[in-house]
Amino acid sequence: MTSATHSTLFPRVPDTADAVLDGLDPEQREVAVALRGPVCVLAGAGTGKTRAITHRIAYGVRAGILQPSSVLAVTFTNRAAGEMRGRLRQLGAGGVQARTFHSAALRQLQYFWPKAVGGELPRLLERKVQLVAEAAARSGLRLDRNELRDVTSEIEWAKVTQTVPADYPAVVAKAQRDAPRDPAEIAKVYETYEELKRERTVIDFEDVLLLTVGILQDRHDIAAHVRRQYQHFVVDEYQDVSPLQQRLLDLWLGDRDSLCVVGDAGQTIYSFTGATPDHLLNFRTRHPGATVVKLVRDYRSTPQVVHLANGLLSQATGRAAEHRLDLVSQRERGPEPAFVEYADEPAEAEGTARRIRDLIAAGVPAGEIAVLYRINAQSEVYEQALADAGVPYQLRGAERFFERAEVREAGVALRGAARAGGNDSLLDHADDLPAEVRAVLSTTGWRSEPPTGSGAVRDRWESLAALVRLAEDFERAHPGATLSDLVAELDERAAAQHAPTVQGVTLASLHSAKGLEWDAVFLVGLTEGMMPITYAKTPEQIEEERRLLYVGVTRARFHLALSWSLSRSPGGRPGRRPTRFLNGLRPGSTGPGGRSAAAAGPGGVWAGDGFRSGEGGAVGGGGGEGRPAAARRKPRTPARCRVCGKTLTDAGEMKLMRCDDCPSDMDEALYERLHDWRAARAREIGQPAYCVFTDRTLMAIAEAVPGSEGELAGIPGVGARKLGRFGAAVLDICAGGDGCEGEAEAVGEM
Hints:
The protein is an alpha/beta fold. The chain has 31 helices and 18 strands. An eight-stranded mixed beta sheet has the order 13-14-12-15-16-11-17-18, sandwiched between helices. A six-stranded parallel beta sheet has the order 3-2-6-7-1-8, with helices on both faces. α4 links the parallel β2 (71-75) and β3 (97-100).
């Protein structure tokens, strides 16, 4: 089998059941052949869990042990369910049902409602926000758009945790959950919302699960019917199961144990929606005889990325941390993760866009690059920076590929051309399938060259270009295939939601990036207050934020950059700190128990357009001074805060000789003059600003206001070389001058 006759997008169906097992590693194979009794697969990021469970199902089907129609595989997103259906189809197990919990429940509810209740199933409410707004108004509350969204989410959480309106305030208090409004007010809105639904005979998505559970509990004949239909269950992403979903799963199973669950407690990031890893962690207690298999061979990421990911979870606490999986990379070595510090958010976005442009120029496809942030509101500055840099991008969370207007229009055109066959003059000069597709798409306005800029026009072009690439792959896999064959393939993919990749840099929140992967990942905005997010206060909430960052790190196959900025806007006070989760992992930082970044493993610091490996301290707007960390470390007495006397361990705090939280007596005007002088000096010598002095050092100078060389030399970050080169100018500025007095001497020394 060669690339000339085959494509990885269209692999051949295995000839036999044993052939299904080909290519699986020992642990994946153990999963695939474990077809009896309860099975628990603890699968780390990038370890091939979907491959393992789809091959398990396919092997059971091809070996005659499982009937396709008796298997129900459930997961949490339509995309994941579509991918599973696509893989099963490629393995010769196309009759297996792979659905989300809601989709499976809705199908059963529609089928059994006339028998269980009578009449037609109430209309499904696609969006509940409008009805929640009406419920709030009827309850005497005025909610703005953000409050309305939050209260709606809170109602959803209450329903999946099986909390009724009357119990909501007490449950919230017990869970230490931060409610967006007074819990009594939310309970009132929740109650009124339920009344409005009953008045209008509508149900919401949570009701689909609740009503299905109710019918299966009350009608034993219907429960028996479902259990005769589905005898084998597979649950993906089991760490994200809510109490309501677990209750539904229990009712599907009855007293049987033909259940395979797959999950990773280290990737639990949806507890705010009611998800809990407890069901995964308690699986062996509920099923003492379960087969347990751990997948830890990481096929996705380089050893450097895996090392950082393992380091993140090694500092975790709590029950989920006790069950963490230490990944082992199966890939060759790659570049070290880059840790980047910027002066402000626009600089961070522009620097990220420059680096992305360089990667694309070096041959990394735009579609294999992602920028991930904590909240969607962070996307705008990156959209602008990428647009300014001429880099195409796509926002994660847009409508599904086959639901886009341009793709539907293209499908109609391709279908018409396929029906016309040789009678369509448009295809007279097309000598292969891709050429036919390009000719047909030209009637919809598509051209081979992409439009300039970004926005809707570029989005449309990228969608159609994805169809052309799909035709090219299809032609390679099926020589001699016709346009009708391609249309049939597109129809199957649309049904399975198995979309080709659009070529553009992905902008996405960390939550929406779950389950995806890219060659290069940029994790941005990693500051305290954003990661962990400000409203994460309890130890459990903080640990979930750590797991969210872990998910972000493990999305990267090869290139990984982690960045933060010291202020929000240019010229702002640089008071931000990088996330605590990187302490002991990024160069120049110290983690719990004095664990240093050197102990964590090699690292790199990327500043501006350059990359420096193994240097201490963060750079770009403050941090390291451009020398190896080992060269800067000298035995010293413990540094103490000059304000409160607390022992200092953070490198940045030691430079200021005070805790970040302690009051600063910095001369703001002096700091601004030093900042302006540094910018001018850096331009003159053709080096980045941090090579003169970092922001932290400038802050320390502006706080100490040294009057002599001895006082200036005593400030961390100055040193003998910097003192000789810039000392006279700095002292002149501190004395009220403009720094020109020391310039002649400094130039002479250079």
